[in-house]
Amino acid sequence: MTAIETTDLRMEFGDVTALADLNLTVGDGELFGLLGPNGSGKTTTIEILTGQLRPTSGGATVLGIDPVEEPLEVRSQVGILPEREDPPSFLTPREYLEFAGEIRGLDDTADRIDEWAGKLAFEGKLDTLATNLSEGERQRVMLAQAFFHEPSLVFIDEPLVNLDPILQEEVKDHLRAYCEAGNTLFLSTHFVDVAEELCTQVGVLREGRLLGTTDPRTLSEEESLLEYFLATVDGDGPEAVPTTGR
């Protein structure tokens, strides 16, 4: 079954084309990574798919829902972690997650908060104002809010930013387990090693164009994902490098 599908998705900001006729399919259970340099259109793609931006043309479905026509329905069904998004500075992590649980109509929010604070090691900071948290602690809180309502699809923009190496490994393990349970993860990153280590499928985006997709697990020892990425970006488009994605 298809979790995400786009058809000729295009986004223009004045004279700037942020996305150029993006055609993309992500199946259920995929840990899909959108890989590209800064400014390639990764965040724009996520904002369209989560109903935050209306595309110039083209269409998309997310869990069978049109994010342009029903943006609130999409956002109620998925988890979202934008890049560099923080909890409100005037709330504690507990208050912020309680608010998130109330918005989503959860009746066991307190238990879920305790569970995720334990998983992401911020239980000692639950009642500290967010303004007094470190960047890494705020990132942990935002990761918790993306997952704690148990969505079947989560969008994450740069999942490991501001996390220490130990917690990075723990988060990677959680992301893998989340998808192994049949859920779908759509992440964007400009770090090739993150995409190579985590993803079951990777799409290479440059200047708003999808240049190719590959399953990094099928690449030979002689061709790393970095080499695939560089060859694809240095080429003239999707025809420059054969795709091996599923």
UniProtKB/TrEMBL annotation:
Keyword hit for ATP-binding: yes
Q: Where is the ABC transporter domain?
A: 4-232
**Matching InterPro entries:** AAA+_ATPase, ABC_transporter-like_ATP-bd, ABC_transporter_ATP-binding, P-loop_NTPase
Q: Which keywords label this protein?
A: ATP-binding, Nucleotide-binding, Transport
UniProt GO MF annotations: ATP binding; ATP hydrolysis activity
- Name the domain of life this protein comes from: Archaea
Please give the SMART domains that the UniProt record associates with this protein. AAA
A Pfam family cross-referenced in the UniProt record is ABC_tran
Looking up CDD domains in the UniProt record yields: ABC_DR_subfamily_A
Q: What is this protein called?
A: ABC-type multidrug transport system, ATPase component
Gene name as annotated: ccmA8
